[in-house]
Amino acid sequence: MNDATILKNPKTRKLLFSAGFSWLFDAMDVGIISFIVTALSLEWKLSPQDVGILTSMNSVGMVFGAACAGYLADRFGRKKVLLWTLLIFSIASGLSALASSFWVLCLLRFIAGIGLGGELPVASTLVSESMPANQRGRAVVLLESFWAGGWLVAALISYFLIPAYGWQIAFVIGALPALYALYLRRAIDDSPLYQSGKSMARASFASKLGSIWTRKHSRTTLMLWILWFTVVFSYYGMFLWLPSVMKLKGFSLIKSFEYVLIMTLAQLPGYFTAAYFIEKFGRKFVMITYLILTAASAAWFGSAESAGMLVAAGICLSFFNLGAWGGLYAYTPELYPTSVRSTGVGLATSVGRIGGVIAPFLVGYMVQNHIHINTIFMMFFAIIFIGALGVLFLGTETKGKELAD
């Protein structure tokens, strides 16, 4: 089955686009903050460490949001939790426009992060459970491709609106998904697998946590926790700092936004190639190949000096890193049975978000202590490579297999 087959079926197309737009709004909110902090650092005179704290607050909220939403989605349904998480981050994003101090903004970004962290694993689980085996991986990677669309919207808002109207306008636009939640309430249904297994969803959180660490699932859980930590650590450490890194390398605020916009465009072909390869060669092939090439791109970006080399390295970084993200979201739900699937995905995502907390703060600390950008990006090279090794030695192939019930 190809992408056209998925899109021709009215039911799968509606689900993919409905969940996809919620994913796009998530990405827009995360992407906007990376541009806002660059503007805020000038207006509020934030130190690199302050920037690291602010960008980390989203991820702190995501740690809690992912873990709680995963369990709640197994207990109360994917659809209900998807709607509530969408509302939480939309309202918190809108209120962020009114923030008058650094710490108030940090608190609102933490609340937004709870919604953001919960929405992503629930949406991917819903789509994964609703697709036939021969379309499932490709469908989830296509879902993930909406993330690139969200970053592109964030880059466009930041390039055209923030310089003219201030950073507050970006947060106001970030409140719009609350209206979209009203549409989703009628547009989507819970997956057939969840509907048929409702009676299994009443187990306690402790019971579900224990079940993903039984002998049957412990190898998978270890692999996923390593993989999620390394991917999220590197993504949030690199991409939330991209506009600021460009500025540190001597480019103006407007020029930094322009170059990051160009780099962001490379995310879409990264997703689409991963969507093609994931059903042709398998999940492990996509994850290992794209992670190794992400690591190489990180090393290249850190050592690049000229504008041409920086943009070329940044394009490769976006292409391969976001392709790996697509594979990650397709692969993870396939490794657990329905009764604990959303819990397993949510906890793996939550562990990953811990990396998303640490990385921006760590980069801020390293920049403030005058550690060279090349050294910082070599650290990302090593971390990403560890993730690739985890998949190689601990991962199992799930291409073409029906989801376990």
Would you write up a description of this structure?
By secondary structure, the chain is mainly α. It contains 19 helices and no strands. The protein starts with a helix and ends in an 11-residue tail after the last helix.
Short note summarizing the structure:
The protein has 405 residues and is an all-alpha fold. It has helices spanning 3-8, 10-43, 48-76, 78-96, 102-130, 133-160, 162-165, 168-173, 177-187, 192-196, 205-211, 218-239, 242-248, 253-265, 267-280, 283-303, 307-331, 338-368, 373-394.
How do the helices and strands line up, and which of them pair or pack?
Elements: H1 3-8, H2 10-43, H3 48-76, H4 78-96, H5 102-130, H6 133-160, H7 162-165, H8 168-173, H9 177-187, H10 192-196, H11 205-211, H12 218-239, H13 242-248, H14 253-265, H15 267-280, H16 283-303, H17 307-331, H18 338-368, H19 373-394
Helix pairs in contact: 2-3, 2-5, 2-6, 2-9, 3-4, 3-5, 3-18, 4-5, 4-9, 5-6, 5-18, 6-14, 6-15, 6-17, 11-18, 12-17, 12-18, 12-19, 13-14, 14-17, 15-16, 15-17, 16-17, 16-19
